[in-house]
Structure formats: structure tokens, C-alpha cells
Amino acid sequence: MLNIGPKSRAWLAAVGVHSMAELRERGAVSVYHLLKSSGFNVSKNLLWALLGAEWGFHWTQVPTEIKMTALADLVRLESLGASE
User: Fold this and answer.
1) pTM of the full predicted structure?
2) CA 3, 42, 45, 57 torsion-angle sign
3) Rounded distance between C-alpha atoms, residue 44 and residue 71, angstroms
4) What integer pLDDT is reported at residue 84 of this predicted model?
5) For residue 4, is it within any domain?
6) Distance between CA 30 and CA 57 in Å, rounded?
7) Residue 50 in domain
8) Among 34, 49, 58, 73, which is most buried by a count of CB atoms within 10 Å?
9) 21 in a domain, yes or no?
10) What is the per-residue pLDDT across 10-45, written as a single tens digit (0 to 9) for each?
11) Is 13 contained in some domain?
12) 3-state secondary structure labels for all residues of the chain
């Protein structure tokens, strides 16, 4: 997977994401949220890497607009989890 190193790949496998198809199906933001809520020590760089993998960009080349949309989506997901 583009942008995804061995440690991140192991984390993804631990939450049931084993392929690019599964990442795309679930979406980078949802997968990042799942990793974070599962207790993995994630950083925003991992979110950028997942977005880059999903969209076909190197993680340092993910456009700002995609990053901002992803962060807004993440805030919504986190607020849904907090209200449950």
C-alpha cells in the first residue's frame, strides 16, 4: 500500500484492513478513527498517509482541501462517538 509502512500495516491488519480495496471501501478517515479509538498511538501524519493511499498521492502531497475535509469529517466522527 502506498505510504503505509510495516508498523502502520500491522495496525491496519489488527483492525481488519488488509488491502487497498478495504481501505477505500471504509475510507481513510473512518479507518484512522477506528485505529485511534482502538488505542493505537496515531498521528495526523498517519491520517495524511491513509488519505494519500486512498487518493493515490504521496502523503506529503495530499492537497490542503482534502486534508481540511478529512479533519472536519474526523471531528464529526469523534463527536458522534462522544455522544453515545
Assistant:
1) 0.91
2) positive
3) 9
4) 47
5) no
6) 18
7) yes
8) 49
9) no
10) 999 999 999 999 999 999 999 999 999 999 999 999
11) no
12) CCCCCHHHHHHHHHCCCCCHHHHHHHCHHHHHHHHHHCCCCCCHHHHHHHHHHHHCCCHHHCCHHHHHHHHHHHHHHHHHHHCC
- Asked if 25 contacts 71 with a C-beta cutoff of 8 angstroms, the reply is no
Contact (Cβ atoms closer than 8 angstroms) between residue 12 and residue 25: no
Block residue for cell numbers 487518493 = 55
Domain with 74, as residue range(s), is 27-82
pLDDT tens sequence across 53-63: 999 999 999 99
Query: At a CB cut-off of 8 Å and minimum separation 6, what does 31 contact?
Result: 12, 15, 17, 23, 50
